[in-house]
Fold this sequence. Notes:
274 residues; alpha+beta; 6-stranded mixed beta sheet; 6 helices; 30% strand
Amino acid sequence: MTKLIFRIDPGDQVSEAFQLQRPLGHYVEIAADRIGEEVLFGHSVVPGIWSVLAVGRFADWRSNDQSVLFGFENIRWLNEPVAIVTEGDPESDRLFAPYLLDTLMDDDLALISAPDLEFVQPATTPMSVAAEGQAAFVSDYVLGAARPCPVTSGFFHSVAEAYNWRCPISGIRQQSLDGRFHEGVAIGIEEPHARRAGLPRDAMFVSSSFGFAYRHGLVVLGEDYDLLRHPDLLAEMRMLLEIANPTAMLRLPGNPAHWPDLDAAGRHRRKFGY
């Protein structure tokens, strides 16, 4: 079971029951399959990084030649935002605007479990989404019930710790000074969208921007941990990469056992014609 996350932005008029208009495309298929389900609403600036603000029910939908109109009801607002980082969704990544819609995977649903959350009273009149929807990103704490509570370290943490919480492409530390918050993502070497378990060598801990680039083959690993760039890599990202990593080499973990699996990197690379 997964949950859909719909983006709501400051200025959106949101009440106990409201509607969102989205462009045509895969949204129509989603509407047909997910009606009646509980969904999440949040704010997102960077693709895959969300501050969840509310929970509601997907009640109905209709479409015309240009867009889909989603209807929601029974909206419950969280007392405080819950921060989550998704591992990326191929269809949502394709739209990269940032995401208007994302998917919270099975293993992460514990972050947004209704019995553990405190809600404010539902709004009875239209209200604008608060700008403070941008919350910090949780690492070894989950903000359920609006209070920090430790969670068991798993695959994500083992990968992040192998890289000392630094993106091996940019070298930028992805963790706050107190160690409680992060904004990096763990992506699989061969299957960046699918890796959710395994050894640290099966994944990398990278910033969201470079995670997006790796998922889509804009940046890949060479045979000697060199960073190969696709001709279609945008000039802005190419410039960022050259400034952050002038040698174009991956910064490897201190433990050689955690170095990325080069066979898996080769299979990923060949998918994009390198």
